[in-house]
Design brief:
The protein is an alpha/beta fold. The protein is 32% helix and 24% strand. The radius of gyration is 21 Å and the shape is globular. Bound molecules: iron/sulfur cluster.
């Protein structure tokens, strides 16, 4: 069942250019996808590709410039403040660094209780009972109630952030690089916790990560972004077995420990993502793509459905290895 449908979502920031001119940096450009209840969609791409801005627009932490975010049958973009506040309890976000996302002034009880106090009538011992339930669900206990974030390890602090995200029984949680600030030794524990919570609570995850090994472990489907646009999407197994966009192939080749079962990487990723203020004409990836041909420099490739549930925006998707 479709829980979230994003249609043509765009976000542009006005940037002052010279004394009087303003130009638009289109950081998210016409992105569309669906997410089913209980599913995990991995959102990947280099830093600066628009992943986090896209997630912030979905939650309306940042206002989209255009497009629709249909959640549970209702377009969140059209909702006024009061109606949005009511629907927000069904969506939550966990950020990369728990020490930055958790207020240092509050103890664990108050951090987890805060959304309950704002959105429900729970108070007193009933509130504390619910907070302890949430802490236990993420592997913490009542002994942690009076601690502050700085007294916790990174893994414990991220568990508090997850408990806080779970407080209002959301249907969808955006996980924005949820383990990349943690020690390697605790990353697997937090990922396993997220898998268990998804099973127990029927959660859908929008899982943002630059680590493709983690995404392969977590995601049912993957959406690859480059310079604000979606360039490939498909089932995780199909994308890892035979990517249909040179950018995805390059990202796979750049993973620290490439899987020997993956197709031999043929593309090295060089240079940086260009500025969204001045995107290259034609295919936006063409200045970095070793497979670029004349057509790529003038004509932007449309997203096309291919085999195995793949969608790719590459003129030559069928000619890639494994295609
Ligand atoms: Fe490379 Fe051309 Fe495909 Fe763009 S359209 S990814 S430049 S081959």
């Amino acid at each position: 069942m479709t829980l979230l449908e994003v249609r043509g979502l765009s976000k542009a920031f006005p940037i002052r250019s010279g004394a009087f001119r303003r130009r638009l940096a289109r950081v998210v450009d016409d992105v569309s996808f669906t997410l089913n209840a209980g599913e995990t969609l991995g959102l990947v791409g280099e830093s600066g590709c628009g992943k986090t801005t896209l997630a912030r627009c979905i939650l309306r932490i940042s206002e989209p410039t255009a497009g629709e975010v249909v959640f549970g049958g209702q377009d969140l973009v059209k909702l006024g403040h009061g109606a949005l506040r009511a629907r927000r309890s069904e969506l939550a976000i966990v950020y990369q660094n728990p020490y930055l996302s958790l207020s240092p002034r509050l103890n664990v009880h108050d951090l987890v209780a805060e959304p309950l106090v704002t959105h429900t009538r729970l108070r007193g011992s009933a509130l504390t009972t619910r907070v302890i339930e949430l802490l236990q669900a993420v592997g913490l206990s009542a002994d942690d109630l009076r601690k502050r974030a700085r007294q916790l390890s990174g893994g414990q602090a991220q568990r508090v952030a997850i408990a806080r995200a779970l407080a209002l029984r959301p249907k969808l949680i955006v996980l924005d690089e949820p383990t990349s600030a943690l020690d390697v030794s605790v990353q697997a524990q937090v990922l396993n916790l997220l898998v268990r919570l998804q099973r127990e609570y029927g959660l859908a995850y929008l899982f943002i990560s630059h680590n493709l090994d983690v995404v392969q472990h977590m995601a049912d489907r993957i959406l690859v972004m480059y310079l604000g646009r979606m360039v490939e999407s498909g089932p995780t197994s199909a994308i890892f077995a035979a990517p249909k966009h040179p950018y995805t192939l390059a990202l796979l080749a750049a993973t620290p420990e490439p899987d020997p079962d993956r197709p031999a990487p043929t593309i090295a990723l060089e240079g940086n993502v260009p500025s969204p203020l001045d995107p290259p004409p034609g295919c936006r990836f063409h200045p970095r793509c070793p497979l670029a041909q004349d057509l790529c420099r003038t004509q932007a490739p449309a997203l096309r459905p291919l085999r195995d549930g793949h969608v790719s925006a590459c003129h030559f998707a069928e000619e890639l290895p494994g295609a």
